[in-house]
Amino acid sequence: MGPLLKRAFTSLLRGIDVKMQPLGLTAMQWEPLALIYYENVDTVAALARESQVNCGSMTRMLDRLESKGLLRRRRSATDRRVVHLELTAKGRQVARAIRPLALEAVAQHLSDFKPAEVSVLIQLLERMVTNGSRLNDDNSDADDQP
Amino acid sequence: MGPLLKRAFTSLLRGIDVKMQPLGLTAMQWEPLALIYYENVDTVAALARESQVNCGSMTRMLDRLESKGLLRRRRSATDRRVVHLELTAKGRQVARAIRPLALEAVAQHLSDFKPAEVSVLIQLLERMVTNGSRLNDDNSDADDQP
DNA sequence: CCGAAGTAGTTGCCTTGACAAATATTGCCC
DNA sequence: GGGCAATATTTGTCAAGGCAACTACTTCGG
Q1: Which of A30, A135, B31, B107 has minimal Cβ neighbours within 10 Å of its Cβ?
Q2: Concatenated DSSP letters for B55-99?
Q3: Pairing of strands A71-75, A83-87
Q4: Which pTM does this prediction carry?
Q5: Pick from B18, B126, B141: CB nearest A4
Q6: What pLDDT is attached to residue A137?
Q7: Å from A134 to nearest chain B CA?
Q8: Taking phi first (over 0 means left), then psi (-120 to 50 degrees means alpha), and beta for anything else, what does residue B80 get?
């Protein structure tokens, strides 16, 4: 069961990877670009929150994207702690192509699913996440603190 | 949908991580030990195949486990290319504890699932994997080679 | 039997993620 | 207004995975 979830996840990742190759992106790099472009998320912390990674990881992801010339950092004038992200022209061009490609990869993995089955899958995964965060986040486990 | 799968997967990983901490293992390190102990898989290549990672990654995983004193490498006498893995006494002791803990973590994520729902989830994930490998492995995509 | 091809394992270099410590800045309380 | 907690970002260190190059061995074809 655990291994199955891993295989499904990595299979989807590989599919996305293939789709993103023409854009020069990896399977992970599209997400920050999409969040900036489609959702107007424009700070490191907000991106990290939305992507479910920590700020340190996001900083380095942005380093890579910046070195590819896809985005720029600009220190905020109103709160000098925060860095605002903005896509370059090239970044916007790449970002525009992301959504359709990502949807293609997902669609391929669900190619023989009936719409109802997709809903069921989503609902079951959501419940797994809920059950999981109930245990991982608000810790009330009796195993360690009796 | 992609993000959801990622969240479910990482949530399960974190759950397993917590369970394995008392053993001094990470969420990834239990798998090779379990394969050696429960399935008698005892070469690098076989472990890599079962775990769905490449040999290079497995080599380094085994480095870490070996440096923790959980297993030993022994060059095969009959085919001097292959390395046989064997658990140390400590390794066997740790491995014995793995299965119940891993099952606990899975059970927590499926705590409110009816048995039928578990079956459905497994079946849907398996179909995703099948659809995915049909596209990732035997490549007959028309996008690149017309 | 010998050379070519294939296989097992290791290593180098890169991406990605987690966690912790350090820095800079803001906001809040007295 | 000054100290202190909270917040944003960066950097170091580590685990983990992918791919490619390399070594050592085995096997197979002639």
Answers
A1: B107
A2: HHHHHHHHHHHHHTTSEEEEE-SSSTT-EEEEE-HHHHHHHHHHH
A3: antiparallel
A4: 0.86
A5: B126
A6: 57
A7: 9
A8: alpha
